[in-house]
Specification:
Elements lengths: L3 H4 L5 E4 L6 H10 L2 E4 L1 H18 L25 H12 L3 E4 L2 H15 L8 H12 L2 E3 L2 E3 L8 H11 L4 E4 L2 E4 H7 L11 H6 L3 H31 L9 H4 L5 H14 L3 H4 L14 H4 L1 H23 L7 E2 L5 E2 L7 H29 L22 H17 L21 H31 L8 H11 L12 H13 L2 H10 L4
Parallel strand pairs: 1-2
Antiparallel strand pairs: 3-5, 4-6, 6-7, 8-9
Length: about 525
C-alpha cells in the first residue's frame, strides 16, 4: 500500500495510453481536477481501430453494434441511412437514469475510465468523439448522472449513457456545481457536439467505469481510515489503561498475516513512550490479566481488513488495465463479441469492502462504549461527563456511532448475489455492481464518522488521566482535533458541531499525518 503522502500527492497531468491508470491517478482527476492527456501512440491506435470499423460498415455481413440493433434486437439489420439515428437512439434510450444526482467526483472518475478504455484502440471510437470527451474533463463540464439505472452488466449503461448524451449536445451537466443544459455548457466552452457514427454509441456506454471509479475512491479512503483505526485503537488502549504487550512483534508473527503485522506495528509506534502506559506496567500494581477483545484483538481485525483491501486493489489494478467493450476490436483487427463487461470481479470486492468497513466500525464503537461505562472505564467518570447527572458528556455520541454501525451492517448485505434478468432474457444474469458501489460509499463515510467519535472520546478520556501524559504521537493527534473543536472535558456544549468539525480532518487524514509527525510513516 502507498503512503498517505503518495496518495495525496498532486497530479497536475495524468497521461493515458502508455500504461494503465493507478488508483491514485483516478482520485487526482476525480477530486482534484488533474488534467488528462492522451499519448501520441494511443491516438494512432484509436485511428487504426476506427479504420477497422469503417471497413466493416461496408460489409454485407451483419456486425453487432456496427450494422445491427442491440441486446435482444441484435439480429435486426440496420441500413446505412439509419445508422447515425441508431447510435443517437441508443444513447437517448439508455439515458434512463432516475433519482438524485450522483456526486461529481464519481462522474469524473467514470468519465476518466471511459476515456482510458476508448484510448486503448479496442473500441473503434472516432478521434473527434474522444477529443470531445477529453475536453469535458478538462473544462470541468460534468454530466448529470442519476442514482438509479445500472445493473452492472452490460456495464454501467444508464450512467454512461447520460455522459454520452452530453457529447451529442443533449442532457444536463454541472458546471461549478450548478446544473445547466449540456448544449449551453458546450457552447460557453467553445466546444461542438458530435454526430455519432457506427459503433460509437456502444463504445461510449458499455463498461464497468462507474463501479470501478467508486471502487478506486473507496480504496483510497479506506487506506486512510484503516490507518486511522489503528491510531484510534492505540488511543483507546492508552485511555482505558490497556496493555500494548499483546502487540509485540514476536506474538503477532505467530499468525503471519501481512495486514496483522502492519496494524500491530502501527499500534506499537503510536503508543511508544506513553507515560500513561508506563504508569501501570508493574504487574503488582495492575491486576488485570488481559484486555477485552476490542482492544486486544484489534490487529487481527484491522489486519484482516487491510488484507481484504489489498485484494481489492489487485482487482482494481487488473480492471484499470482492461479494455471493456462489446464488441471489441482485437489486436489483430477482428471485431468480436465478448462478456468482459460483466461487473462480477468489481462487484464482489465492493461487497467485501462493505463487510470490512462495518466490522472495523463495529469494533471501534465497542471501544468507545467502554470509555463511557464506569464498570469498564477503570476510574473515569460516567460518560466522561464534567458533572455527571447535570452533564451527559459523550453519552449520545455513542448512540450516534451505534446508529451508524447498525446501518453499516445492513449495507454489508451483498448486492452481488442478486440478479434480475433484463433485455428480454438476453441479459439474464447481472452483477449489481453499481448498487454495491453506492452502498459502499455510504459505509465508508459512516466508518469515518464512527472513528471520529472514538478519537474524540479517547482524547477526552486521556485528558481525564491527568496529570499523567499521553504518548507524543497521541498528543499530536489530540492537538490536531483540538485545532477544530475542543476535546477537553468540561460542561456540555454543542457536541454535534464538535464531532462534525473533527470528522473533516479525519476524512482528510489529519490524525494520520499528525501521528506520523512523531512516529514517521505508518503502514
Amino acid at each position: 500500500m502507498p503512503h498517505l503522502a503518495d496518495l495525496d500527492a498532486p497530479h497536475t497531468t495524468v497521461r493515458l495510453g502508455d500504461r494503465p491508470l493507478t488508483v491514485e491517478e483516478v482520485v487526482a482527476v476525480a477530486r482534484r481536477g488533474a488534467r488528462v492527456e492522451i499519448s501520441d501512440a494511443a491516438w494512432e491506435r484509436v485511428r487504426a481501430s476506427r479504420t477497422v470499423v469503417e471497413d466493416l460498415a461496408e460489409d454485407t455481413v451483419a456486425h453487432y453494434g456496427v450494422s445491427t440493433g442491440f441486446g435482444a434486437l441484435a439480429t435486426t439489420h440496420i441500413p446505412h441511412e439509419k445508422r447515425t439515428q441508431l447510435q443517437r437512439s441508443l444513447v437517448r434510450s439508455h439515458a434512463a437514469g432516475m433519482g438524485d444526482p450522483v456526486e461529481e467526483e464519481v462522474v469524473r472518475a467514470l468519465m476518466l475510465l471511459r476515456v482510458q478504455t476508448l484510448a486503448t484502440g479496442r473500441t473503434g471510437i472516432r478521434e473527434e468523439t474522444l477529443r470531445l470527451y477529453l475536453a469535458l474533463l478538462d473544462h470541468g463540464i460534468t454530466p448529470l448522472v442519476r442514482e438509479y439505472g445500472s445493473l452492472g452488466c452490460s456495464g454501467d449503461l444508464a450512467p454512461l449513457a447520460h455522459c454520452a448524451m452530453v457529447l451529442i449536445g443533449e442532457g444536463e451537466v454541472l458546471v461549478d456545481g450548478a446544473p445547466q443544459p449540456a448544449a449551453e455548457a458546450l457552447a460557453a466552452a467553445g466546444l461542438h457536439p458530435v454526430v455519432l457514427h457506427e459503433k460509437e454509441g456502444l463504445a461510449l456506454i458499455n463498461g464497468t467505469d462507474g463501479m470501478l471509479g467508486m471502487l478506486c475512491l473507496a480504496i483510497h479512503d479506506l487506506h486512510v481510515q484503516l490507518t486511522t483505526a489503528d491510531i484510534a485503537c492505540a488511543m483507546s488502549v492508552e485511555g482505558l489503561l490497556g496493555t500494548d504487550d499483546v502487540f509485540a512483534e514476536d506474538l503477532q508473527a505467530l499468525r503471519p498475516h501481512p495486514g496483522q503485522a502492519q496494524s500491530a506495528a502501527n499500534l506499537r509506534a503510536v503508543l511508544a513512550g506513553s507515560p500513561i502506559r508506563e504508569s501501570h506496567r508493574d504487574p503488582h500494581a495492575c491486576t488485570r490479566v488481559q484486555d477485552a477483545y476490542s482492544l486486544r484483538c484489534a490487529p487481527s481485525v484491522h489486519g484482516a481488513a487491510r488484507d481484504t483491501l489489498a485484494h481489492a486493489r489487485r482487482v482494481a489494478d487488473a480492471e484499470l488495465a482492461s479494455a471493456v467493450d462489446n464488441p471489441v476490436i482485437t489486436l489483430d483487427g477482428r471485431v468480436e463479441s465478448n462478456g468482459n463487461f460483466h461487473g462480477a470481479p468489481v462487484a464482489y470486492v465492493l461487497d467485501f469492502l462493505a463487510i470490512v468497513a462495518a466490522d472495523v466500525a463495529s469494533m471501534s464503537e465497542r471501544r468507545t462504549d467502554r470509555f463511557l461505562d464506569v464498570s469498564r472505564s477503570h476510574g473515569l467518570p460516567p460518560f466522561l461527563a464534567d458533572d455527571p447527572g447535570t452533564d451527559s458528556g459523550l453519552m449520545i455520541a455513542q448512540y450516534t456511532a451505534a446508529g451508524m454501525v447498525s446501518e453499516m451492517k445492513r449495507l454489508a448485505a451483498p448486492a452481488s448475489v442478486d440478479s434480475i434478468p433484463s433485455s428480454a432474457m438476453q441479459e439474464d444474469h447481472v452483477s449489481m455492481g453499481w448498487a454495491g458501489a453506492r452502498k459502499l460509499r455510504r459505509s465508508v463515510d459512516a466508518l469515518t464518522r464512527v472513528l471520529t467519535v472514538e478519537l474524540v472520546t479517547a482524547a477526552r478520556g486521556i485528558a481525564l488521566r491527568a496529570p499523567l501524559q499521553p504518548a507524543a504521537a497521541t498528543a499530536a493527534v489530540i492537538a490536531e482535533l483540538d485545532s477544530l473543536a475542543s476535546t477537553d472535558p468540561g460542561p456540555d456544549r454543542d457536541l454535534g458541531r464538535d464531532l462534525m468539525a473533527c470528522a473533516t480532518t479525519v476524512r482528510d487524514g489529519g490524525p494520520v499525518l499528525a501521528a506520523e509527525s512523531v512516529t514517521g510513516p505508518l503502514h
